[in-house]
Write a structure and sequence with these properties.
678 residues; alpha/beta; six-stranded mixed beta sheet; two-stranded antiparallel ribbon; 30 helices; 10 strands
């Protein structure tokens, strides 16, 4: 009997985790608490009593590491038997979740029409794909149009090969992988195919990477590839060359070089009539309504299933040739609020993600921002962003005046407004008809800006106070050196050093009268506000560069509307916090010096501001997806699954068929909503 090494390793890992938890909770932790509260050191600890808490911390860290390892890698196996069981379980789940299987359940039929295949260059068809696979040397490309039943044939072949591998130790392990999850140029450098294949085998079937590498090298794995047609055309040739050394069966709509071609035969008229008759009397009226145009298109399992589901238990007079469109309309008819559902499904279809139900794993904004209509983008750039700027300046000015005096707040408002013109990343978008358009968005943006401004102000006050315990000379030198480097990033040109020195001299002279602590307190809040404002400006610029030119052009129509005046106006409102105390002009100087960091923080190539602005850009754009995908996303996915538009396998939602996805991606939501209400 062979022992699975990964199983032994996992058992040892779990035993170690249990032992660590037991020792920590039962022995070390009570002893550490006892010693900390003045109790005696237990005898078994001896002279190591002072190391109790470090030991507890170390034990906890090791236990957390083992738990994470178990979470990430605990499912892995290098056992052939376990791998075959997992392949069988997953492939059966894929077959059960397919549109064909769901149709069998809805119609109450025992099986789908039996498909036949024909080898390229041969006249005789065969209903035994396994025999064809054997005769061609375990390597072929299965060709057929969308909906011809290729995926079902592939999965059924996989189950046959699983049984063969169980009975023959030398037979390879079959695995079905979907190229929809592979993108050759989805990142900055091409995804290496072997690494992706090993990752898929690990993620889908729990095959450890080490075992998968050995099995692939020794040709102990038969790779059955689906989804080649989902690979973008620009990546197709590269993908075919990458998969050639590994592929046993590939599904495609066309031939592939160096692989024998096997064609899926279309359904015959007799098969269609036999299938309709098996559902009698629920489809009795369907046969009489089949016109020659319908018969010409009714040659695939997908077309037959869609037609049967659309007209089940209905008196049929006429049938349209758009089977997919009629099915979608029938599935969504009578639903309350069909508009948001259709809009969300269209967005998900155009997004083209392997898993539609991962709300926290939205792709980069480049993938979905161009799919949005113009209105939410206009609201973001013309209403929300200027209002957030104004709210932030208002809140920081209020806190500055409240804590540092009116002069400091006034200097902040004037300097921040001027710097905003310098680092402004707002596009010159224009005002559409209607004065109140987007007023709620502006209010929400202003509130968000106020909240963020209060947080920035608190951070700035903390930064300004950290130098209070420093010696006078240390604080003095720090302010001068910090002013020099802030000015160095602020001054443009190839020789900014003389100008930076000149700016640094200003606080050096001023602190002779004011003292360094006053200037440092103002620099803290100026620096905090400058960093936040620069990063936000850079984030807005990054988002604008993601918007498609066509969307930008639609947003540029109309008369100009300049948004900058809102910032100083609301900043002046924030000056109310300084009424009652004028403050020190040394503090005002510190605020101005701290704000010199703004242009540096707004640059896209300065670390860590570039990374922070990218995070901010994603945060700014994420709420825009709520217009297409509501907070009730799970309910929407469940509804679409119940209507047979989506399917779920291993916790992942996908469209029930690529034809449904393509139809929803190209549909007119308004026209589709009208059709569902008829």
């Amino acid at each position: 009997m062979k022992v699975d090494p990964s199983g032994v390793t996992r058992a040892a890992r779990l035993t170690a985790l249990a032992a660590l938890c037991l020792v920590t909770v039962v022995l070390l932790l009570p002893a550490a608490i006892s010693v900390s509260t003045g109790g005696p050191v237990p005898g078994f600890i001896g002279e190591f009593g002072r190391w109790l808490w470090p030991a507890v911390g170390g034990m906890v860290l090791v236990a957390v590491g083992l738990a994470i390892w178990e979470r990430v890698r605990g499912h892995e196996t290098s056992s052939r038997t376990a791998a075959l069981s997992r392949v069988e379980t997953r492939v059966k789940a894929l077959l059960a979740a397919s549109l064909a299987a769901q149709t069998q359940i809805k119609l109450g039929v025992l099986q789908q029409p039996k498909l036949a295949v024909r080898v390229d260059g041969e006249e005789v068809s065969s209903a035994d794909l396994e025999a064809v696979y054997e005769r061609l040397g375990h390597s072929m490309v299965l060709i057929g149009p969308v909906g011809s039943g290729r995926s079902t044939l592939l999965r059924e072949l996989c189950l046959v090969l699983v049984e063969r591998a169980r009975n023959d130790p030398d037979a390879p392990i079959p695995v079905v992988v979907d190229l929809a999850t592979w993108r050759a140029y989805g990142s900055r450098k091409p995804t290496e195919f072997t690494a992706w294949l090993l990752r898929e085998m690990n993620r889908r079937y729990g095959i450890s990477r080490s075992a998968g590498t050995i099995w692939l090298r020794r040709e102990r794995v038969a790779v059955l590839i689906d989804g080649l047609d989902e690979v973008p055309r620009v990546d197709r040739a590269h993908c075919e060359s990458e998969l050639a050394p590994f592929a046993s069966v590939v599904l495609s709509t066309g031939p592939i070089e160096n692989l024998p071609s096997v064609h899926v035969e279309p359904l015959s008229r007799g098969q269609v009539l036999e299938y309709i008759g098996s559902v009698s009397p629920r489809l009795d009226s369907l046969e009489a309504a089949l016109t020659p145009e319908i018969w010409e298109k009714l040659d695939s399992p997908l077309a037959l299933n869609l037609l049967a589901l659309t007209h089940l238990d209905k008196q049929v007079d006429t049938i349209g040739t758009d089977f997919v469109g009629s099915f979608v309309v029938e599935r969504l008819s009578g639903q309350r609020g069909a508009g948001p559902t259709i809009r969300a499904l269209k967005f998900l279809a155009r997004l083209d993600r392997p898993d539609l139900g991962a709300p926290v794993h939205m792709p980069h904004r480049r993938a979905w921002l161009p799919l949005l209509p113009t209105r939410p983008l206009w609201l973001l750039f013309v209403r929300a962003v200027p209002a957030a700027y104004a709210g932030g300046v208002c809140a920081v000015a209020f806190m500055t005046g409240l804590r540092l005096g009116l002069w400091s707040a006034l200097v902040f408002v004037v300097a921040a407004s001027s710097l905003l013109v310098m680092v402004n990343k707002l596009p010159h978008v224009f005002h559409p008809p209607g004065r109140a358009h987007g007023i709620m968005t502006a209010v929400l943006g202003f509130i968000a800006g106020v909240v963020a401004g209060l947080m920035v102000g608190l951070v700035g006050l903390w930064l300004g106070g950290i130098g209070t315990p420093w010696p006078y000379l240390v604080t003095y030198v720090f302010v001068v050196v910090a002013s020099f480097f802030l000015a160095l990033g602020f001054i443009p040109g190839d020789a900014p050093v003389p100008w930076a020195l000149l700016i640094a001299i200003t606080p050096g002279v001023s602190m002779i009268w004011t003292g360094p602590y006053v200037v440092l307190s103002g620099m803290g809040i100026g620096f905090s506000a400058g960093v936040a404002g620069g990063i936000f400006a850079a984030a807005v610029g990054r988002v604008w560069r993601t918007v498609r030119p066509g969307q930008q052009q639609r947003m540029r129509l109309g008369r100009p509307w300049w948004v900058q005046p809102a910032v100083p106006v609301f900043g002046a409102v924030g000056l109310l916090g300084g009424i009652g105390t004028l403050g020190s002009w040394g503090t005002a100087l510190g605020v101005a010096l701290g704000l010199l960091v703004t242009p540096t923080a707004a640059r896209d190539y300065v670390w860590p501001f570039d990374a922070l602005s990218e995070v901010a850009a994603e945060g700014v754009t994420r709420p825009l997806s709520l217009g297409e995908l509501s907070f009730r996303r799970k309910a929407l996915l469940h509804l679409a699954q119940d209507r047979l538009l989506l399917t779920r396998v291993d916790g992942e939602y996908r469209f029930a068929h690529v034809a449904l996805r393509d139809h929803l991606a190209s549909c007119d939501p308004t026209a589709l909503v009208r059709a569902t209400r008829r």
